Amino acid sequence: MGSFRRRSARAACVLGLLLLMLAAVAGAPAVEPAAARGASAPVITLLSPANGATFVSSASLFPTFRWQISWDTPETTIVSFETAADPAFSQNVSVDNKACPSTNVSCWTSVQPRSVYAPPYGNVWYWRVGLTTSAGTVYSPTWTFTAVNPPTPPKPKDRDRDGVPDSSDNCPGVANPSQRDSNHDHTGDACQPDHVPPQLKVPAGHGARGKTLFASFWAGDDRGMIRMHLTFSYEGHILISQPFGWRPSAVGQHHTFYSLAPLPRSLPAGIYMFCVKVWDHAGSHASGCGRYTIS
What we know:
The protein is mainly beta. It contains one helix and 17 strands. Strand 16 (270-279) and strand 17 (285-294) form a beta hairpin. The longest helix has 26 residues, at 2-27.
């Protein structure tokens, strides 16, 4: 009986110790994960371009965006660079991402997008940088920038307004869009007098009564324009007289004239004269005749 009391007393003592230990455990604060203990969130600082900056944007000029990351308790993260046409990031949104390990959350702190931000693509833009964390995505403040087109280069001087810049115009004081330089002296025809008469060669020929007359000759001018007058006569009597207005014709260009109707059969057979007179714009002229045997 005495032994039973001693065992009961020891059991009561052990039970009391267990209750004290449970009470101690129950009163101890629970161990929380680092994120729940209020681990610091990352801080993203935008560096450049400055907030509100204006810069030129084109297919050959691309801005570089830079930022800085501070994070006391870093985690493996995804860094995102975002631009948009509105501060809510809902219009014309562009996102670039890069994963960074917890040992180097600053593995990506600059980017140079191959994008044109100037009109017509846009004008005022917004940008920010975000980091994924175990508590969600953390963003930097939103900054803005204005993109403009490169300045339009001034038009080259063109005093005579012929569409050829003065720097390459061979006659800058007189409009000459063709830049014609007949004597190849680097001065346009429009800036020097024309002292060269047109050239003409009228060979002999033949024809037949009752058939269409065909007459050939070579005529032209170093400045490329002539007008002509053709006659066909017999013993001084003009049978055909035909003027032709201004037309392009280089030196040595071949021309063929034909009668609108066959030569009358009533004409006498014999030697006829086919004559040509040509003028250039300077008023210079050349004349020539060819003997035509008409059978």
